[in-house]
Amino acid sequence: MLQFKEEEKIILIKRRHWLVLLLHLLPLAFIFIAVLVALVTLPFISLGELSDWLLRTESLTEFSLKFEVAFLLSLLLLILWQILFVQLAHYYLDTWIVTNQRTVHTELIGLFNRFLTSIYHDRIQDVSADVKGILPTLVGYGNVQIQTAGAHREFVFKDIPEPYETKEIITQAQMEYLKRVRSDNTT
Description:
Layout: E1 10-14, H1 18-41, H2 48-57, H3 62-93, E2 95-99, E3 102-110, E4 113-120, E5 124-130, H4 134-139, E6 141-148, E7 154-161, H5 163-186
Antiparallel strand pairs: 1-2, 2-3, 3-4, 5-6, 6-7
Helix pairs in contact: 1-3
C-alpha cells in the first residue's frame, strides 16, 4: 500500500485518457454483440452442410450439435468478460501521482502483480511531453517522460490527458521542492 508522509500533499493524479480505454474495449464490444446474436439465433437456424457432415462422421444429432456450439459460444463470452475485467483493472490501477515531494508510478503487470515505484523531485533530470498522431492531437492526450538519475531511468506517463499541462505541473513541483530543500539545508 502506498504511504505518504505527513507533509506530503497530492498535487495531481493521472490515469490514461478515457478514449484509450474505449478504443481497447470497442473490439471486445463488437465481438461480444456478435456472439450474443449468434447465441440468440442459434436455435432458429440450420447448421446446413456442417451438421450433415458431422452427423455422418459422428453420432450426433442436430440438437446436440447446436448445444455444443452454444457451449463454445458461451465459453467465448466468458473469455471476453475476463478480458474486459483485465482492461478495466489496468485502466483503474495504472496511476501516476504527483505530490509536492515525489512522483509515484503504479502499474498493474498481471492480476496479482503490481509495480510501484517513486522518484523524489530532486532526482529528476528532465521532463518532456509528446503527442503523436491525429487522434491524440485532436483529443489532447499523450505521453510525459521523466528522466531520472535513479535505478529506474525513465518514468513514462502513457496516454494521459493534457500532457503539456502535466509536464508544467511536474516541473513546477520540482522547482518548489528544490527551493524548499535548499532553504532547509541553508538553515
